[in-house]
Predict the 3D structure of the following.
Amino acid sequence: MNAAQSSSTIRPHTGPLAWLAAVLVAMAVLAMPGRAFAHAALVATDPADGTVLTQSPAQFSLTFSEPVSPLVLTLVRPDGSQLALTSFRLKDQTVEIDNPETLKSGTHVLSWRVVSVDGHPVAGSALFSIGAPSAAPVAGEAVDWTLRAAIWAARLLLYAGLFLGVGGAFALAWLAEDRRCGQRFVAAALLLGLVGAPLSLGLQGLDGLGAPLARFAAPTVWKTALETSYVWTVLIGLIALGLALLSLAGPSGLRKLSASAALLGVGGALAASGHASAAEPQWLTRPLVFLHGAAIAFWAGSLAPLGLALRREPAEAKVFLRRFSRAILPVVIALAASGTVLAIIQVEQPAALINTSYGRLLLLKLALLLFLFTLAAVNRWTLTAPAEAGDTEVQRRLVRSIGIEVAIVLAIFGVAAGWRFTPPPRALAIAAARPVSIHIHTLKAMADLSITPGHAGEVAASMVIMTGDFGPLDAKEVTLVLSKPDSGIEPIKRPATKPGDGTWRVDNLLIPIPGRWNARLDILVSDFDLVKVEAPIEIRGE
Amino acid sequence: MMKYLLAAGMLCALGTNAALAHITLETQEATVGSTYKAVLRVPHGCEGKATTAVRVQIPEGVIAVKPMPKPGWTLQTKKGKYEKSYQLYGETLTTGVKEVDWSGGNLPDEFYDEFVFRASLAADLPAGQMLYFPVVQECGDATDRWIEIPAAGQDEDAVETPAPGIKLLPKK
């Protein structure tokens, strides 16, 4: 990533911001080695998975292989309703959780999400029943709407800062004769961006951990955020915002230079993270996102200063209008071309436009864009010439039209910020093929089992076997047994083969239905010594 | 009445069959500090194949093992160190038989046979608990392993291929 370079080249202009950048980079670097630590593994739960209890327990406990910090603890009742468990104590490696109510009979799910010392979130669940087992409740994936709204709003603030603020500063520096009009608007947008950037970074950390908004200030949240690629977006974005402020308020000799650097920073910030930048081929997508972002900033940023200048000082605004209308055509072409190519890469198939939420947001954005382009075209080809000639009535119409354009641009930012929650069809296809993995740890042996793809159908299983204390375990035979007692399907038993890379494999395995399966590994350690380890594994629907 | 008897009889027969599916020991109780004659009962081959070898692991505390030779089978023992020393008739034993193998035989699936050894059960074995003798049954290239030992508190019927075991009785 070139952010470190750019932060050092701009240091003379930015002062505190560069220091902030340096501190953030240093923190990111310090956080890196954390990845090498082993993640926490669940050692035991009380009640144990699958237990049938005669009466409601007073408390639950989860014991891990290392100390953890709970993020979300939930109890799912037999009817599927959820109860947040908020009262808990940490005792070494054990989390003791108070049960706030007397549980009715039936099967409950104790669902937990904790973060280990290395900042890696680990989640899982244990099933237990009171009285007699019932059908396992289905816990719908709870969406934290408050957190989502906060992420969306922070993202919108950042977009406003980058596009309206930095773009506005660029327009004021390069296009406007008299840069007083719209300066306050641009400065306000930049400040919104400066607020939005760190907020959205912290929220990214919360989202990564699946933690609630209340834990915004927790160090692990920020540590997690610093390990995501989004930190580069925020970092470069902050630098761009700082440069734009410098262009507004700094010495006039630096105005154009810092405004240009800030505009490039907008492109760089967007290209540093996000769905579109993550798509393959990277050599194409990253430059396209860069171009797209810089073009948006140029266009959207110019609108407000231009409109304000036309309204207040129509005579002086003519030069501004002429320069803008000369530059805008190639910019819009670049914007549309880069946007089209990125959309094709992300959506892959036309059908996905309708049947995925990403596609539907794209259609909405396209509709808004169509409207915006129509307005812009009318402005460019019918209103600009008379307005430049000094027709005050047309100038007023142009100001109104520009006002509407700004509103549409904001709506488009809102839609684009919504993409944060909708993986693109390209990524959905990748996610469907993603394996599902579990780690089983017992005193005698431990195993990593991963099933690829992690959904029902034809799959392959790969296993790594070790002794309970992480030593090598040269097993004679390994057998994989998959069972789903609640479905009436006979256990699927397959001997594993040894391809010679230290793993054990079962190929051409057919998992008939999705759901919670029980995976058991029968490990023949020596002729007379068999170790069985088992754990539930969640198989997705196709 | 006859019908009920028949049903009960069938149940019994089925029940016994289930038990017979495993390799078991004829005498399922023994007193610690006594001599035990182990008779391993092999009710069938491995999934229809003829049994060609029977190997039994001797658990700690079972000493002075002497297997009975069997016509048509090669008898071998593997000796090793005990985890501690045992006193037997005034002698101190530190090593002894750890595994007994009868191999090279041919016991078709439809026939039944027994494999016998005699041993002393150390006096300090924990009375009241089970003592297991894991057995590997080989049938040419197929293998059945009767080596599973139920975990503490686990029901013996819950394991698929249980090791034959005996209940240790206290010294009279």
